[in-house]
Design a protein that fits this description.
Layout lengths: L2 E5 L7 H12 L6 E5 L1 H11 L7 H4 L10 H7 L5 H8 L10 H6 L3 E8 L5 E5 L9 H6 L9 E3 L2 E5 H4 L4 H6 L4 E5 L14 H7 L4 H8 L1 H17 L3 E4 L14 H14 L2 H6 L1
Parallel strand pairs: 1-2, 1-7, 2-3, 7-8
Antiparallel strand pairs: 3-4, 3-6, 5-6
Helix pairs in contact: 1-2, 1-13, 10-11
Length: 279
């Protein structure tokens, strides 16, 4: 039986997913096929490297720094949320909190990172091998939230958040050979996406990135349809959705520490359902 673990991200709300990851590490539950989208890229790279409690610091500690997420960062770097600070300044070998690239590369777990090509508006699936010493651009690309971050450039191509083009990539997991899938989402299961949330991004990006803008305009419909399909497959035992009952006011960028910690603990508790699903 081949299991896949998908973390679809959600900015600061994915402190919930960090709790799920730490539960899996504590219980030594090894899921071989991992697919990370947006903040889920960070969570799952740390799951594969086996660095318990490291990932939650990117939700409850580092975001309070101006270099990470602030108007200062926006004026200094062009990104309100600085992915270079997360994935390079902090995570490189000489950084404050190094990512264990050696353990990551040696792990038998596989990883796919989902990003959106800014020129075509199509999903791009970066393989595990795209993460190398001093090279985490694929994870940055997957996490590049339109308007909040400037595009991540790889080989001259601008990339944006994978949640635009493939927000719940369960079909990709099945195509890759998964028999059953665990999906971490960071909103309630009955909380469907409102297309109005994307209206400003569609308008502001339409001139420079017309196909990306088109993809963003379809994002809510795609997310909602994928979620409905996943819920139906859950009823058939093919998918397990791990979702919060409450996000405690945490949003993509809003991150009060007490509520981040609460959301993290909530994810840890919700993850207990995984044991029964894989057994």
């Amino acid at each position: 039986m081949v299991y896949s673990l998908i973390d679809i991200g959600g900015g600061m709300r994915d402190a919930f997913g960090a709790g799920v990851v730490d539960y899996l590490l504590d219980e030594k539950i090894n899921i071989g096929m991992c697919i990370g989208v947006s903040a889920g890229a960070s969570n799952l790279t740390n799951y594969i490297s086996g660095q318990r409690e490291r990932v939650v610091k990117f939700y409850d500690t580092y975001p309070n720094r101006k270099e990470y997420m602030s108007l200062w960062s926006l004026f200094k770097t062009g990104s309100y949320l600085s992915l270079e600070y997360i994935y390079e300044k902090i995570s490189f070998p000489e950084g404050e909190d190094p990512f264990d690239i050696e353990s990551f590369m040696k792990s038998e777990k596989d990883l796919t990172l989902v990003a959106t090509n800014g020129i075509t508006g199509e999903p791009v699936y970066f393989p595990k091998s795209s993460i190398r010493p001093y090279e985490m651009k694929a994870a940055e690309a997957s996490s590049t939230i339109p308007l909040i971050c400037r595009p991540t450039i790889i080989d001259g191509v601008p990339y944006f958040d994978g949640g635009v083009a493939d927000p719940i990539p369960y079909k990709k997991a099945f195509r890759m050979g998964a028999d059953k899938i665990i999906i971490i989402i960071t909103k309630r299961k009955d909380d469907f996406r409102d297309p109005e949330k994307d209206r400003i991004a569609v308008k502001l990006l339409s001139r420079k990135y017309p196909k990306l803008s088109d993809a963003i305009s379809r994002r809510a419909e795609l997310y909602n349809q994928s979620l409905r399909e996943a819920i139906e497959l859950e009823k058939k035992g093919k998918i397990l959705i791990i979702a919060p009952d409450d996000t405690f006011g945490v949003t993509t960028t809003k991150h009060p520490k007490e509520y981040i910690d609460k959301l993290y603990r909530h994810g840890y508790e919700k993850a207990r359902a995984i044991k029964g699903f894989i057994e």
